């Protein structure tokens, strides 16, 4: 049995998830809290600016025809879509102009678009405090970046990190927001990693800003249904004698 399925086993992924599950808003430094607020405002601005892009028209036409009952707000459009569809629209809005914030410290990642698109949808399902939202945002950011640091050749291998690492970041952020325990957060991370996708070959196409359908649109489902188990599919080196 994979060690990540054994509640008593210790792995790097489970250790990370235990740390993230236990994190409190008070653990964030004043600088981190300030950057979280800045990140949210920056992303909302990018999403509103991108909401009128023709690519969003194309996407919304499909989502309105095939989506579920309206539960979550689509930014700048005066409409609601299903819990899994609104994050896809909002996530693409935030990234379509490519002005959303970028982490550059060893891992090149637009973390805010997948994370916040998922969190905004979940927050409408069950209202949360601003502190809870900010903490989940920071936790998701941490999960995405640390996962990227375990695979330094990931970007050079042709993968689009905002789609791949964004899936992990969004799922962990959503799991934190709804209060998953360390074991279930590990499951959410593994489920996200096994669904992660995104290719750099799509740069210059509509798919570049849409590559994280897996990252964003299913993050609420992964987070809320992480009672189903999963081996953590991120890099999890084990102790030699484990």
Report on this model:
The protein is an all-alpha fold and 242 residues long. It has one domain (19-224): 2-methylcitrate dehydratase PrpD (Orthogonal Bundle). The chain contains ten helices and two strands. It has a two-stranded antiparallel ribbon with strand order 1-2. The chain is globular and about 50 Å long. 49% of the residues are buried. The model is unreliable at 232-242 (pLDDT under 50).
Write a concise synopsis of the structure shown.
Helix content is 54%, strand content 2%. It is mainly alpha-helical.
Give helix % range: 40-55%
Task: Name the CATH class.
Answer: Mainly Alpha
Tell me the series of helices and strands, N- to C-terminal: HHHEEHHHHHHH
Low-pLDDT stretches are 232-242
CATH-defined architecture: Orthogonal Bundle
- Using only C-alpha atoms, the radius of gyration works out to 17 Å
Distance between the termini: 12 Å
What is the fold named in CATH at topology level? 2-methylcitrate dehydratase PrpD
Number of helices: 10
Q: What number is the mean pLDDT? A: 83
Structural class: mainly alpha
What is the 3D shape? globular
Task: Describe the protein's topology.
Layout: H1 12-22, H2 30-50, H3 54-66, E1 72-74, E2 79-81, H4 86-95, H5 112-125, H6 130-149, H7 161-177, H8 182-195, H9 213-216, H10 219-224
Helix pairs in contact: 1-8, 2-4, 2-6, 4-5, 5-6, 5-7, 6-7, 7-8
Properties at a glance:
2-methylcitrate dehydratase PrpD; about 240 residues; about 55% helix; globular; mainly alpha; two-stranded antiparallel ribbon; disordered C terminus
